[in-house]
Amino acid sequence: MRVRSLWPLATLLAVLPLQAHPRHRPAPTAQEEKAIHRVEKLSDHAYVLFGQGGNVGLFVTDAYAVLVDDQFEHLAPGLLKAIRSVTDKPIRYLVNTHAHPDHVGANLVLEKQVMAIVAHANVRRRMVLAQAPLEPAKRGGLPELAFGEEDPRIRARLDIHLGGAEFHLLHLGPGHTDGDVLFGYPAERVLHMGDLFFHGLLPYIDTDSGGSFEGLVSQVEAVAGWVPEGARIIPGHGPVAGRKELLRYRDFLKAVQAHVKANPGKAPAALAAAFDTGAWSDYRPSPGFVSWENLFAVASGQGPGRTPRS
Ligand SMILES: [Zn+2]
């Protein structure tokens, strides 16, 4: 069922037992919350919040805060506490980088506390589809401001002007999904890349949600071409990166792409076996989620980008 198919990263991070639906999990204790969330300051007005699920960006302007992604619903109390340790300003906008539940799971809670949830139109479309089987009381948290076209190849941009700050939301094409958004704060050279960037982990490309390996490579190449020295880059997963690490990720993706092109017709397992994984040992497989074989399956168009659920 569609809802379950949207929980890939839960497996990766060993956050949730597969048989448990996260909506039914009890709220974590205060001690668990303390252990889960960690705040790192990136610039004068930008922060990243680490927890379980996708990394969260927090941007604090003169009068308001802007949040980028929100992890899981059951972690919302701890996430809010972490936000309040940084600022007591109201959250004006919540931006979703894409529709996976480890990035939008707390929308249901936060929609009552923000003026608007903002995302690419395909994020809203996929969330509506994912919620269709649920009972009405469990639906909600949908993006209210949606931009971009259903055809993910069409680029889209939305600027947010808030007080003295300016944020750019960019959709460059299909990549991790068909609704990925890059969130930039140029004044302080901070960029949230969502799951277009798995830092230190083999990337997951969700072809069931319109993702594309070739698209991912070209987007990462494009960003690597303009991201400035000194930039702080929030990946969807993994530690904060800079330009150097993004260039390394680009080179890694291009090496995978070149290996596939040099070996037409080879099966994913054979492609993985023949690849120099030792040269890219800083990119690790995630057991039960994305293996080298999974990556070569999706890169060669021969299969999904993740290990099938049992
Ligand atoms: Zn994702």
TrEMBL record:
The keyword Signal applies. Pfam families: Lactamase_B (PF00753). Gene3D superfamilies: Ribonuclease Z/Hydroxyacylglutathione hydrolase-like. The keyword Signal applies. PANTHER family: ACYL-COENZYME A THIOESTERASE MBLAC2 (PTHR42951:SF4), METALLO-BETA-LACTAMASE DOMAIN-CONTAINING (PTHR42951). It comes from Mesoterricola sediminis. Residues 1-20 form the signal peptide. Keywords: Signal. Residues 53-237 form the Metallo-beta-lactamase domain. GO terms for biological process: antibiotic catabolic process. The lineage of its organism: Bacteria, Pseudomonadati, Acidobacteriota, Holophagae, Holophagales. This is Metallo-beta-lactamase domain-containing protein. Belongs to the metallo-beta-lactamase superfamily. Class-B beta-lactamase family.
